[in-house]
Description:
Strand order of the largest sheet: 1-4-3-2-5-6
Protein name: choline-phosphate cytidylyltransferase
Distance between the termini: 168 Å
Helix content: 40-55%
Catalytic activity: phosphocholine + CTP + H(+) = CDP-choline + diphosphate
Organism: Amphiprion ocellaris
Number of helices: 13
Region (Disordered): 285-343
GO molecular function, one term: phosphatidylcholine binding
Radius of gyration: 62 Å
Shape: elongated
Amino acid sequence: MSVAKEACCTLTEPAIFARETSCDCRAPHEKLTIAQARRGTPVDRPVRVYADGIFDLFHSGHARALMQAKNLFPNTYLIVGVCSDELTHKYKGFTVMTEHERYEALRHCRYVDEVLRDAPWTLTPEFLEKHKIDFVAHDDIPYSSAGSEDVYKHIKEAGMFVPTQRTEGISTSDLITRIVRDYDVYARRNLQRGYTAKELNVSYINEKKYRLQNQVDRMKEKVRTVEEKSKHFVYRVEEKSHDLIQKWEEKSREFIGNFLELFGPDGTWKQVFQERSGRMLSYALSPRESPCNSPPRELSPLRSPSPPSPPARWHNARPSPPTSPKGASASMSSMSEGDEDEK
């Protein structure tokens, strides 16, 4: 449980600032060789490794160098020295971050155990003895400064120098070069975010030019947004049109198929028409007779019966003229028979 708590504190709590002397070990500080340190000796204390620098615009290259320094030996206590603004401006040049900002940046690196403020530009034996430093870690490229071709030359000669590898493609100078190269872009961006021209050290004419360029960029962005929306709308319309045309074609094929099924050469409608035509022709050629046992037709109640014919014995009655020769002869015979009866 205590180990887990210790690890948690190591990852969450910032590194301490170095005191007048930061070594709490009461045992005599024995000088170690690199071979001894790599074997994990001495067992009563960690190996104290010192790494120094400016650490302006703290970046991944700085962090990787400190990670290498921390992992040089099985048990390493890493002290990081940060030079002040006064020394840095004197020997190297102006910094972007102040010394206090650089101190705080180093404190929150997970590989750092202790931060030493206002570190010396050149490491003296007295300084190394005061802070009980076993080894100094830095990249192996000769660092010429303060009138010396390599400020770590005497450390290397003493066998206390352990090299680390630089990370290619990233450095403070590279970052500053990017800013200088794209100065107009960053100036316009900060003006847009509310910084004044005075704060950015931008002239009145450049300020107006940058603001005009920002307006043009905003207009271009609006036009680009409208174009994207228009393209999306046209694509949706084309997609919908394609779906409608496809559905129309399917319905058309279905309609044509149904039409041919009904009215085509072998369609249902032709068969029905032929059957009905044959049935009507058969009715016309052989009409059906009425059955013999059909009931007599009754007179309609609206039609009155015809009056009875007068009796034949009436003398004043005249027979109706015959409609045919047979009828005429029949009538003549009946008249002669009547005369005979009267006689």
